[in-house]
Amino acid sequence: xxxxxxxxxxxxxxxxxxxxxxxxxxxxxxxxxxxxxxxxxxxxxxxxxxxxxxxxxxxxxxxxxxxxxxxxxxxxxxxxxxxxxxxxxxxxxxxxxxxxxxxxxxxxxxxxxxxxxxxxxxxxxxxxxxxxxxxxxxxxxxxxxxxxxxxxxxxxxxxxxxxxxxxxxxxxxxxxxxxxxxxxxxxxxxxxxxxxxxxxxxxxxxxxxxxxxxxxxxxxxxxxxxxxxxxxxxxxxxxxxxxxxxxxxxxxxxxxxxxxxxxxxxxxxxxxxxxxxxxxxxxxxxxxxxxxxxxxxxxxxxxxxxxxxxxxxxxxxxxxxxxxxxxxxxxxxxxxxxxxxxxxxxxxxxxxxxxx
Length: 356
Prior knowledge:
It is a single chain. This protein is α+β, with helices and mostly antiparallel strands. It has helices spanning 11-49, 109-119, 165-168, 176-189, 195-198, 287-295, and strands spanning 78-81, 94-99, 127-128, 133-139, 143-149, 155-159, 203-210, 213-216, 225-230, 241-242, 251-255, 264-269, 275-283, 300-303, 309-320, 328-329, 331-337, 342-346. It folds into 2 domains: 78-99 and 276-346, no CATH class; 109-274, no CATH class. The strands form 3 sheets. The protein has a 9-stranded antiparallel β-sheet with strand order 3-4-5-6-12-11-9-7-8, with helices on one face. Strands 1, 10, 14, 15, 17 and 18 form a 6-stranded mixed β-sheet that branches. A 3-stranded antiparallel β-sheet has the order 13-2-16, with no helix packed on it. Strand 5 (143-149) and strand 6 (155-159) form a beta hairpin. The relative contact order is 0.16.
C-alpha cells in the first residue's frame, strides 16, 4: 500500500519558519534601530553645518537718528592696530536698541521739585532760573547750591569746599566701597536713585587740592577727596555704558567725609531713563568697517591719549549715553589704546537692508 503525503503546516515546518522569522526579524529590527540612529545623526549634522538663517532684525523703531556725539576736539595723527590675538573680536550680526522715553511737563512739576529740595535741606523759596530750572542757596559751614531741572530731575549740587583749606586738612577719606554707598544713599535720600544705577559698582579716583584745583593724588594716603563716577549697570550684564569723555559718569560726585555730614561736597546727576521693555534689534556693521571709519576721522575720539599715534589694543561693544536727552540707547564699538586712548564708532550698519 502506498504512503500518503501529509499536507499543510507540520510542526517541523512551523518550527523552521518560526526560527527564520525570529532571525530575520531580529536583523530587520537591528537595521531599523541603527538606521534610525544614523538618519537622526545625519539630520543633526546637516542642521549643525547648515543652520537656518535667523529671522531678520525687528527694526520696528524705523530709521534711527545718528548718535549725537559731542563736538570732537581731540585729534589723532595716526593709528596702529596691535590686538593680542591679531584679529578683531566678533559680536554677531545684530544688537539691541532701547527706547529712551522723554518725560513731559505737568502742572505738578514745580511742587515735586520743591519737595526734592526739602529732602536735601533746602527749605527757602527757590529762584527760577528759566522755565525748567530752580536754584536754591543756603549758607552753613559750606555755602551750598542746588540747581534742579523740574521735569527730568537732573541736578547739580555744589559747595564751596575748595574755599576752605582749614576744613580740607581735617578731611577723612572714605573707602572706595563706602564712597560708592554714600553717593547712592545721597541719591536715595532725594528718591532719585535709578534702579539700573543702584547695582552699579562705580569708578573711584583719588584726588587732592592743588592751587585751588583738584588733581589726581599720588596715593590713597595723599588723597583729600574721592571722586565717584556711576553709570547704569552694563546692558545684559555684558555691554558697558560709555559717556562723551569715557570717564565722567552719568552720576559724578566728589566726597570728603570731614567736610560734610553725608560726605558729598559736589554731585551732578545727568541721567536719562531707558525703557528696557521697548527694544528692537538692528544689524551691526563689521568691526573691520568700524575700524576703517575711525581711521578716516569718521568716528569720535573721546580721549586722544598721551601719544601722537594711537596704538589700539582692544575693541569692545558698548552703549553710548551723552549729556543731552536722546531717543534711543544705541550700541558703539569702543577702540581702546595706549595712554588712555578711547575712540567710538556707531556699531549699527548704515544700510540695514544690506549690512556691512
